[in-house]
Design a protein that fits this description.
This protein is an alpha+beta fold. Among the domains are: 107 residues, no CATH class; 122 residues, no CATH class; 124 residues, no CATH class. Helices cover 29% and strands 30% of the residues. It is built from 11 helices and 27 strands. The strands form 5 sheets. Strands 19, 20, 21, 22, 23, 24, 25, 26 and 27 form a 9-stranded mixed β-sheet that branches. The protein has a 7-stranded mixed β-sheet with strand order 5-8-2-3-4-1-9. The chain is elongated. It starts with 29 loop residues before the first helix and ends in a 5-residue tail after the last helix.
Length: 532
């Protein structure tokens, strides 16, 4: 077998490698580059559009959840809750909220945050929509203020927000009564505002109530306006009958405030926002003329003052001039009896008017003049049904001379007992005289007299059988016949007797009529007969 050998190829017959220069950038890198640019743009946009982050402290995190709970203004979402955690003392919760960029200009120390949940306040139910959508944080942006990032959330939602047109006023009252947040304010039966806040005064002697009156009704609040509680029924009995008055069913149930302007005061300017007014308990108290200056006097009574209470009226000839400020008790060493000192508060301006008419320089001089003329203080019954008493300053005849004296720097006005007290005193004196009568001795004398009569009757029995007695009876019969003739129907004596009997009958009827009148109207003993 023959082998064939192949001769090596020559260099000229081998293929030659070609060398190409590689490009520096591949198209495949375009995709990640574009992605990086887009990512950086998104980051930049996120940073530029990111709004402020604030921390809000609440009492609890009820209904709040990180990543889900929204922050809304006018039902438009402007942020979201990022985190919820407890404070270091474990007494509150801190809620971190991220807001949109546009909210940056309105987040300041005047901004308010609160949680919207279903609530019942002021007779209305709010936040019912959160039953389905869940609770959210509402915000009331502040228009002017310093920048701030930490806030204390409101536990009670504000009744009015910053953008609500109207005015805020402050009312002073002795107590809050049945008022609450959202209690309505009425003017002529129309709701014009509501209570937005309240708190104790610095002295603790009363409360300050903040109210908001909506525009344009705030122009009806004048410097002379009067406010009073409309929280219930106003029942009044007078000569025209029974009058029942209430502002509305809502105010009857939850309370409210009424506002009016006295008709006799015209041309008063519109009140400025923040002005302070007095809140009166009733309409009658609000419409009374207001007096600022007070003067105190003492009246000491020897009789019981049961039924007289602090706040009872003080009247001068039936005209109210003040009230009872205090009631005490003391022992008078001079008279050796227990007295009841009653301290009264008198509106000085009322007395000043009388003083100016009497020509006296001041009210004290005027009172001294009136006391010399018979003015005394007296406790009287103001209501027969309730037994309530009041203090009356009136003039009395046949009173012992007296003068005003000073008791601890306070002038003391002399007093006089009531007619009932005088009657009781006279009856007591009469009973004391009756007790001094020797009834036992009189009884013994009566027994002796009866024994003497018995002996005399025995003697008369013996005398009855004698002829002298028969003759005496005969003469007596003749005398009686003569008397019958004298007292005949047509005699002048009978006519006079009949006329006397008629007069006695009329007098008896008058006494019976007086008794009936006193039984029906016992107060006539105090007031006297009514003038027609």
């Amino acid at each position: 077998m023959s082998e064939e050998t192949t001769a090596p190829s020559s260099p000229e017959t081998l293929p030659q490698a070609s060398v190409c220069k590689k490009k520096s950038f591949s198209l495949i890198w375009i995709v990640p580059l574009i992605a990086m640019i887009i990512g950086m743009g998104l980051v930049y946009t996120s940073i530029m559009e990111k709004g402020p982050t604030v921390t809000i402290t609440f009492a609890s995190a009820d209904g709040l959840e990180a990543g889900k709970t929204k922050v809304k203004y006018k039902d438009v979402e402007i942020g979201k809750v990022e985190a919820v955690k407890l404070t270091e003392d474990f007494e509150h919760v801190e809620v971190t909220v991220s807001l949109v960029k546009r909210a940056d200009d309105y987040i300041n120390d005047q901004t308010r945050f609160w949680v919207v949940r279903p609530r019942l306040s002021g007779g209305t139910v709010t936040g019912l929509g959160t039953l389905l959508s869940g609770a959210y944080i509402a915000v009331d942006p502040g228009k002017d203020g310093d920048s701030q990032s930490e806030f204390i959330g409101l536990e009670i939602p504000p009744v009015v927000t910053e953008d609500t047109p109207g005015k805020l006023f402050t009312l002073k009252a002795r107590d809050l009564g049945s008022l609450d947040y959202g209690s309505p304010i009425y003017y002529r039966g129309i709701k014009i505002g509501q209570v937005v806040g309240y708190g104790l005064q610095n002295t603790g002697e009363g409360v300050n109530i903040t109210v908001f009156v909506d525009a344009p009704y705030d122009d009806y609040v004048k410097d002379s306006s009067r406010f009073w509680l409309a929280s219930g029924m106003d029942l009044e009995m007078d000569a025209d009958g029974i009058r029942f008055d209430t502002e509305s069913l809502v105010s009857l149930l939850i309370g409210g405030i009424s506002l009016t302007n006295p008709e006799h005061i015209k041309g008063t300017p519109i009140a400025d926002a923040g002005d302070m007014f007095q809140l009166f308990p009733t309409r009658d108290a609000a419409m009374k003329e207001q007096f600022v200056q007070k003067e105190y006097y003492i009246l000491k009574f020897a009789q019981s003052v049961r039924g007289l209470s602090i706040g009872a009226p003080v009247e001068f000839k039936g005209f109210p001039v003040g009230r009872v400020a205090d009631i005490g008790i003391e022992f008078d060493w001079k008279s050796k009896e227990v007295l009841v000192p009653v301290r009264i508060e008198v509106e000085k301006e009322r007395l000043a008017r009388i003083a100016s008419q009497t020509g006296e320089a001041d009210t004290d001089s005027m009172l001294e003049l009136l006391v010399k003329q018979g003015m005394r203080g007296q406790v009287r019954t103001g209501n027969l049904l309730t037994g309530k008493l009041y203090v009356a300053l009136d003039f009395f005849k046949a009173v012992e001379p007296a003068k005003i004296v000073s008791d601890g720097g306070v002038l003391e006005i002399p007093t006089t007992p009531t007619p009932i007290e005088e009657l009781t005193s006279n009856m007591s004196a009469l009973f004391e005289k009756l007790q001094k009568i020797p009834m036992e001795k009189i009884g013994n004398n009566a027994v002796e007299t009866l024994q003497s009569i018995k002996k005399a009757s025995e003697k008369l029995e013996k005398l009855a059988d004698s002829n002298e007695l028969r003759l005496a009876f005969q003469e007596t019969r003749e005398t009686m016949e003569g008397a019958n003739n004298l007292l005949s129907k047509d005699s002048a004596t009978i006519v006079e007797l009949q006329r006397a009997m008629r007069e006695m009958s009329e007098a008896a009827r008058a006494v019976r009529s007086l008794a009936d009148q006193l039984e029906r109207h016992p107060e006539s003993l105090l007031r006297g007969k009514e003038r027609k």
